[in-house]
Design goal:
Largest sheet: 6 strands, antiparallel, barrel
CATH architecture of the largest domain: Beta Barrel
Number of domains: 5
CATH topology of the largest domain: OB fold (Dihydrolipoamide Acetyltransferase, E2P)
Number of helices: 6
CATH superfamily of the largest domain: RNA polymerase II/Efflux pump adaptor protein, barrel-sandwich hybrid domain
Distance between the termini: 88 Å
Length: about 450
């Protein structure tokens, strides 16, 4: 009984082994029945059925791994004719050698349907590092980075002088850079003219009202304050000197008076600047003009305080250009309560305008500039690509505004597009040169190739 069982099991194993060998041999035969396709990684139109080198660039051909669902087999593609790799005008109706001794390459019917588009198999696309992006609508902005120079706010600078001549009796603010408050005494001046005016006023106190008003007005014209006139009226005593007070709060940025000096009427004594708000000047070049408008937000960063930004705004754009730098000066205003921004300091400036809220944009690296034309490579799906002329607008942060040529949702190539574009131009040129006037051959006037 045991021997019979062993014999039956051995027979079953042998039958299974023979069936497996037969099935494996059948699959191998089927796989070998398909013709291998070899293609140039840099020139996808160079196709052959055996391993060799590309006659155009000399690179080794790689085996095509395209499935039947995406790429028809070589046997299923109709060959129109054969041509020389280096001489497109030399054609033949059968395989052979060119006058230069190179193997002729086939020209397929589906390649003649569109001279501008090219077809690349997935393996070659991966080897080339092709990347795509979808065209979208969105906000278009650009950050303008420049270097600014801090300066005084000219609307907050005051010069101090007197309207009468005299001698400085006492100097209260005696050095440049000293901070003063509004109404703080600056100096005392002795003026014979001022003494005479006070005596006339006291004499007019008991006289007609019109004479009193005239003498008081004269004192006011000499910048004698109402408080000083009131004190003169109350004490009825002429003061030998008059105190000059600071007209505003700020810092003394210029001092031209010394103790005991003689000063004339209108002579410059002090210059006081309020630093609670400062101006920053920056140069903007011609290509950045479309992005600058008054009222835009601006940021300034100081080299000694990294990571901290002060907020301000663009208050004025000068209406002329510097002929040497070819730039326009922009003035920005920044609050400076903590006095971190000091005049004549340099700072990094960023202006972030918003030029369009709904703009069609593409990455900057996707646009090929070829002189008078701008081209992008559209991905048509299933490994097909086609150059597309576009009209670009302003340049934003890493993107171009597209005015014409693309629609929302189109897929474009953002990497290795130069290789695809070169292949498309080569194909279009070859189709034009080998055109025999048939309907399926494009005319030179409609071939969308371009020069670089």
């Amino acid at each position: 009984m045991n021997k019979r069982t062993i014999a039956i099991a051995s027979l079953a194993c042998m039958v299974g082994l023979l069936a497996g060998l037969w099935l494996g041999h059948g699959r191998t035969a089927v796989g070998e029945g398909k013709a291998a396709v070899y293609r140039c990684p840099m020139h996808p139109t160079v196709v052959t059925d055996h391993l060799s080198s590309c006659p155009v660039c000399g690179m080794d051909l790689v085996k095509d791994a395209v499935s039947e669902a995406t790429e028809p087999a070589v046997s299923e593609r109709r060959i129109l004719h054969w041509r020389a790799p280096m001489d497109p005008t030399y054609t033949s109706d059968k395989p052979g050698k060119s006058p230069m001794g190179m193997d002729l390459i086939p020209v397929y019917e589906d390649e003649r349907s569109d001279a501008a588009s090219v077809r690349i198999d997935p393996t070659t696309i991966q080897n080339m590092g092709v990347k795509t992006a979808t065209v979208r609508r969105g906000s278009l902005s650009r950050t303008i980075r420049t270097v600014g120079r801090v300066d005084y706010d000219e609307t907050r600078i005051t010069d101090v002088n007197t309207k009468m001549s005299g001698w400085v009796e006492e100097l209260f603010v005696d050095f440049t850079g000293q901070r003063v408050r509004k109404g703080e005494p600056l100096l005392e001046i002795y003026s014979p003219e001022l003494v005479s005016a006070q005596e006339e006023y006291l004499s007019a106190l008991g006289s007609r009202r019109g004479l009193l008003a005239s003498t008081k007005r004269r004192l006011l014209y000499w910048d004698v304050t109402e408080e000083q006139i009131a004190e003169l009226t109350r004490t009825r005593k002429v003061k030998r000197t008059m105190t000059v007070y600071s007209p505003q709060e700020g810092v003394v940025v210029h001092k031209a008076v010394f103790d005991g000096a003689h000063i004339d009427a209108g002579e410059h004594l002090y210059r006081i600047a309020d630093l609670s708000r400062v101006w920053v000047y920056a140069d903007v070049f011609e290509y950045e003009f479309p992005w600058i408008e008054e009222g835009q937000a601006a940021e300034v960063a100081l080299p000694y305080e990294p990571g901290r930004a002060l907020l301000g705004e663009v208050v004025y754009i000068y209406p002329f250009m510097d002929k040497k730098t070819r730039a326009v000066q922009v003035r920005m205003a920044f609050p400076n309560e903590d006095r971190n921004l000091k005049p004549e300091m340099y700072a990094n400036v960023e202006i972030r305008p918003l030029i369009s809220r709904e703009a069609l944009t593409v990455p900057v690296q996707s646009v090929i500039h070829s002189g008078s034309r701008n081209v992008v490579i559209r991905s048509l799906g299933k490994g097909r690509f086609r150059p597309q002329d576009v009209t670009i607008g302003v340049e934003g942060d890493g993107v171009y505004e597209i005015l014409d040529g693309l629609r929302d949702g189109d897929v474009i190539v953002t990497s290795s597009q130069f290789l695809i574009d070169s292949e498309s131009n080569l194909k279009a040129a070859l189709m034009t040169m080998t055109s025999d006037g048939s309907e399926d051959a494009p005319s030179p006037a409609t071939t969308p190739g371009h020069s670089h």
